[in-house]
């Protein structure tokens, strides 16, 4: 049954004085700073006997990024393709987002896709009659902490995530799709941030599940070398980044914006390992005279900075989580990291 182990971990990094880049954040420093964007989570946390007697340990869930109006112009980009974002071919072909963006575990994509179809049919009676659509569902692998031989989420969890979606505040860290994720040697998950750029807002939400422990960088400080996390046998993982903006952009420009999320991941330590899936989708909530050419540069900068901070926010918010086979992934140690940042005059 759905549940949540999340515990508040105190102020966010920006509230403690960390500044990523030169641009200012929006009021909430979240993707919800883009008007009309809501976020909802369903967390699935259970402990049962292993299959076939039960469903085993579940540390997983569904997260939905829900624009209040659809369709919207959109673009997608892939840094490394060992992952999935359903509907991405359609976005590339038509430059349009037709559904909320759903995030979940790798082997749960099909079930969440089914639930997303139900959401679409319930919200628009013409779906499946006058036309069909392809829901957008992204995934990362949480099988280190969650039993993956059994699909732990239900199709209806997609609808629950949409129904429960809100503006800020919403939870970050080990919640929804992020419940079982690991990032750069520590607990990962859902994180978000925003930036103000050229009179517009750029907001980013990430599902962070990538990287080796020694690679972690926080505002340029080699934290992973100084405070080693748990070394993963396979540092490959994945990261889905969802970029929203109120800047009026063409689908081609949105693809270019989406591509910049990869630079934000690189700043945190990602090298996009062979088996990792770094896939990004960007969409605009506005129409009108399109921003083009050199005027895109502030939006590119905003995307890079917000992606970097969103990853750090995911890790900062996530507590220790014990999962499958008694495995424990620790939350990033706040006191040690803050001491390092102060010593490097970053805070």
Structure overview:
- This protein is of the alpha+beta class and 347 residues long.
- It has a single domain, classed as L-amino peptidase D-ALA esterase/amidase (4-Layer Sandwich).
- 24% of the residues lie in helices and 25% in strands.
- The chain is built from eight helices and 14 strands.
- It has a six-stranded mixed beta sheet with strand order 4-3-12-11-10-9. Strands 1-2-5-6 form a four-stranded mixed beta sheet, covered by helices on one side.
- A hairpin with a 2-residue loop joins strand 7 (182-183) and strand 8.
- The longest helix is centred in the last third of the chain and has 21 residues, at 297-317.
- It is globular, with a radius of gyration of 19 Å.
- The N and C termini lie far apart (41 Å).
- The model has no long low-confidence stretch (mean pLDDT 95).
Element layout with pairings:
Elements: E1 37-47, E2 57-67, E3 72-81, H1 88-94, E4 96-97, E5 101-105, H2 109-123, E6 136-140, H3 156-163, E7 182-183, E8 186-187, E9 189-197, E10 200-209, H4 223-226, E11 238-245, H5 251-259, H6 261-268, E12 277-284, H7 297-317, E13 321-322, E14 328-329, H8 334-343
The CATH topology, please? L-amino peptidase D-ALA esterase/amidase
Low-pLDDT regions: none
Task: Name the shape in a single word.
Answer: globular
* Biggest sheet statistics: 6 strands, mixed
Radius of gyration using CA atoms only? 19 Å
> Would you list the SSEs in sequence order as H and E?
EEEHEEHEHEEEEHEHHEHEEH
* Helix-strand category: alpha+beta
Total domain count: 1
Specify the CATH class: Alpha Beta
Per CATH, which architecture?
4-Layer Sandwich
Order of strands side by side in the largest beta sheet?
A: 4-3-12-11-10-9
